[in-house]
Every structure is written in structure tokens, then in C-alpha cells.
Amino acid sequence: MKIIKGVFWGLVFSGVILSAGIFIFLETFDTDSYLPQVARKASQVLARPVTIGHVGLGMSWKGIILDVGPVVIADDAKFTSQPFVTVDRVHLGLDIVSLIVRREIRITDVLVQSPEIHIIRSQEGIMNVRSIGRHFESEAIRHSEPEGRRISTIQVEGTNPRAVGPSRPWQVKISIQSIRIRDASVSFIDQSEIFPLDIWVSDINADVHDFSLTRPFQLSIAASSLSPVSNMHLGAVVSVNNPDVVISDLTFSTNLAQLDPRQVKGTSPQLAQISLPSHFTGSVSIDLAHLEIGPSQALKAQGQVKLADCVIENFDITKMVLSGTLGTISEIFALPEHLFDGALNGRLAFVLHDHAVFIEDALVQTKNFDFALQGSVDEGLDTNLQTMLTLKGDVSASLAGQVKMLEYVMDDHKRIAIPAKISGVFPHWEYKLDKDFRKKLKKAFKKEGPKQMINDVLNSISVIASEAKQSRF
Q1: Is there a domain that residue 297 lies in?
Q2: What's the confidence (pLDDT) of residue 144?
Q3: Least CB-packed of 245, 281, 395, 468 within 10 Å?
Q4: pTM of the predicted protein model
Q5: In degrees to the nearest 10, what's the CA dihedral of 226, 231, 235, 238?
Q6: 83 belongs to a structural domain
Q7: What's the longest Cα–Cα distance across the chain?
Q8: Which helix (H) or strand (E) holds 138?
Q9: 244-295 pLDDT per residue, tens
Q10: Which long-range contacts (CB under 8 A, 24 or more apart) does 201-207 make?
Q11: 336 Ramachandran zone, left/alpha/beta (phi>0; psi -120 to 50)
Q12: Euclidean distance between CA atoms 61 and 95, whole angstroms
């Protein structure tokens, strides 16, 4: 019994001495003296100048605490002299017991406070993120061994030099219990001459639980964009399969009622010139079954977009489409305003591959019409879409009663159906009606055109006569 007590108190005493030694070491160790070396190595790896303001080591009942910040990563000089990434503070907690007893690096908590990332896309379509680490990669290739000789690599698994007999694999396990990102912001500037953009996503709060490089983990994000409140929510399952990152079961949702139209107009000079609605309602959601991010930011994805009960006030979408499609029929412009108001719902199934979005099936519906499309849009917004606008039966009959020529463009189900193609680079899209549909229009003008012209002249005479009569009194 005395031996057991002696061993017990010996272990306790040793633990106290070890803890006291670690505490004294952490309190007296000057971490800032190593900052130049750390910053220089980080600059070499990222191929960008990196500055670190301070590094602090401490100890708590949970283990070792590391505080770093502020951290600044410069942008590619070809884009801007402003920082690419800034971080106010990085806080990290390390479980010392797991490290000593189980030889496991167990990080209990990672907090990244107020990071800012500025992404820029040049007029040539090159993004400022592409040059990160390029110099380091080229140096690694340059210093590799000549062809024909074995090239050594750094691996997680290795050989324990102290092992007796045949070499045995050893591996240090790394686990992160929690990652928190608070008050982050991301800006995206597209310098395209055709459609420049300046979009901010702010108030980003992200949480990752049980981060792992060997098994999937959960990711959740809340953020705001073009809104004074948090209006975007994302959840996903992430797997890191070096060098690929695979994201599955991704769900994204946003409430259109929380959009600020003034901020929407401010994202692009083109949008600033458009008369946008004063209020939006409805919701947009995105479901991605699979998203794969490969080397050089190559993306592959498959999913769908949903619109639910979207109402755009003071914006008669059906009349706008009819006017743009059948603008040669002047009576279209005389239709009553807000004749087709109503909620808009829709779905869009797509595949992202080879820097292009392939729309497999898309359908937008209101109580008055269906709008379907298929085709592709590449990263340069070069568009090739086949579309079909179909008005519901009762709406078609009502319109045909007011505009006689519309009877000639009805399908076999007595619905006004307008097939067309959208092509070109946005915003210079070309909307071209289907060849057979144009034949129907020619036939309609041949039979009803003269009557329409006479009616237009009579209406003009009637208006002039009415104005002349009023001017006499």
C-alpha cells in the first residue's frame, strides 16, 4: 500500500513540476523574437508579403493558448497595393494532456476574428487568388531530384527511429474540436468592361465542429449581402480529400424581402441605370448534391435552384416579356398595367463543369404563364439558351380577344406559345424568335396587318380630334 501511495504522490509531484515548468517557460519565452522568421517563411510559401503583429503563448486549465495577430497578407502587385487578407486575431487552444499521453495534437478551439478577404477578377478574366503559392510550387519542382532518381516527399506516416527491429509506421493524429470565424467579410470586384461588379458579403459567422482531414465534418455559415441584416444561411458536409475538397448536401437560402434595392443598384453601373422595384418578396434556395473543388480552383457541381413566392412590385414581368417578344404588335403596349401581377415560383437543375453552367431543366411559373429554358452559360457570360414562353389557356384566350393577331401564334392546346433563343455575351444578349414562329407572325401580319394599321390610324385621328375639341373650350 505504501508503495502505491508513493507512486501516486510521485506522479502528482512530477505533474505539478512539469506544469510549473511549462507555465514558467510559456511566461518567459519571447515568441515575438521569432516573428521575422515565421513571417519570412509564410511569405515564401504564399508568394505574397506576410506581416504578423504579435504572437503570444499562455496557459489555462484546458492547455496551451496561442494568440496571433494582426496578420496581413499582401495582394498580387499586378492587381492592387491593398491587402489581400487581413485578420485581427487568431486564437488557438491546445490540449497538452492529449499531446503528452496519447501523442495526439488535439486543438480544442480555433477562433479567427474579423478576417477580410478581397477577391479581384481582372478584365482578362484572371483572379488575384491564382498566384498564391505559385512561386513556392515552382521552387519545389526546381529543387526536386533529376528524372530517374527517387524523389523523397514529406508524409504524415513515417518511421520511428527509436523502434527496435523492423521499422514500424507511426502517425501523429491531428484533430480540431471547434473552428469559429466571427465578423468576417469578403469583397468581390469584377473589372469586366461589359458588366463590372462590386459585391460585399459581410457579418460572416461560420462554425465547424470536429474538423478532420480523414472524415467528413459539418459546416454552417450565416452572413449578409445587399442587406442590413443577416439574410443568407448555408449548411454543408465537407470532406478534404487532398488535393480535392468535396462538399455534399449543401443548402443555401436567402429572403428577398431583406434585400436593400439601393445596395443592389450600387453593385454595378449597369444596374444603377435600371429602374428597379422598390421592394422584393419571396425566397431563393440552392441545393447542391455534390460540389468538388479541384486543383487550380477547378469546380464541378450538380444541384438545383428554387424560387418560392417571389413578387416584384411595380414590375409587370409578363407584359415585359410579351412586349419584348411581340413588340411589332403595337396593341401589346396598350394592354392594362399590372394585368399579370402575381407570385413567381421556379426551379432550375444545373451541372457546373469546365468553367460553364449547363442548365438541364428550368421552369419559372406564375398563375398566368410558364417559362422554360435549357442551355449553357460559360464563365465569360457567353450564353446559349433555348426558351419557351407559354401563356395559360384562359390568359391566351383573353389576350387573343383583345389582340386578334395572337390567334395565329397559339399551339394545339389553344395557348400562346413563343419559342426563342437567347445568345451572345451578357449584357449584349440577342433574343431571336424560332424560325417556325416567325412564319406564323408573317402569316398573321399578312391577314391582320392592314386591319391593324387602319385601326391605328383611326385611333390616332380620334385622339387628335378629341384634343382639338378640348382646345376650343
Answers
A1: no
A2: 46
A3: 468
A4: 0.72
A5: 20
A6: yes
A7: 125
A8: helix 134-142
A9: 888 999 999 999 989 998 898 899 888 888 777 777 889 999 999 988 887 6
A10: 201/225, 201/232, 203/230, 205/180, 205/181, 206/179, 206/180, 206/181, 207/178, 207/179, 207/180, 207/181
A11: beta
A12: 9
d(CA 8, CA 10): 5
Note down the domain range covering 345. Answer: 316-446
Instruction: Indicate whether 192 belongs to any domain.
Output: yes
Burial class for 45, CB neighbours closer than 10 Å (0-12, 13-18, 19+): middle
Domain contains 304: no
- CB count in 10 Å sphere of residue 52: 19
Tally of structural domains, the chain: 2
Question: Can you tell me which residue has the cell 389582340?
Answer: 403
Tens digit of pLDDT for each residue in 285-308?
999 998 888 766 678 899 999 999
C-alpha–C-alpha distance, residues 319 and 314, integer Å = 12
Cell readout for 161 is 527511429
Return the number of other C-beta atoms located less than 10 Å from residue 250's C-beta.
Answer: 19
CA distance 403 to 419: 19
**What is the Cα–Cα distance from 127 to 25, expressed in whole angstroms?**
45
- Is residue 373 within 8 Å of 362, Cβ to Cβ? yes
Domain boundary among 191, 211, 231: 211
What single letter denotes the amino acid at residue 367? Answer: K
Query: Same structural domain for residues 36 and 180?
Result: yes
Q: Tell me the three cell numbers of residue 358.
A: 449547363
Residue 225 burial (10 A CB sphere; 0-12, 13-18, 19+): buried
pLDDT tier, 208 (very low <50, low <70, confident <90, very high otherwise) = very high
Q: What is the pLDDT of residues 390-449, one digit of tens each?
A: 888 888 888 787 777 778 888 888 898 889 898 998 777 888 888 888 888 777 777 765
Is residue 332 located within the same domain as residue 196? no
How far is residue 116's CA from residue 87's CA, in Å, rounded to a whole number? 6
Grid coordinates representing 386?
433555348
Tell me phi and psi for residue 380, to 5 degrees: -90, 10
Rounded Cα gap, residues 89 and 86, in angstroms: 9
Residue 99 φ/ψ, nearest 5 degrees: -65, -40
Contact 424, 383 (CB under 8 A): yes
Residue in this structure with the C-alpha cell 424560332, named with its chain if needed: 434
Q: Let me know whether 198 and 345 are in one domain.
A: no
**Residue in 377, 410, 384 with CA at minimum distance from that of residue 395:** 410
DSSP 114: S
CA-to-CA separations, 322 to 159, 317, 390, 417, 445, in angstroms, rounded: 73, 9, 11, 11, 17
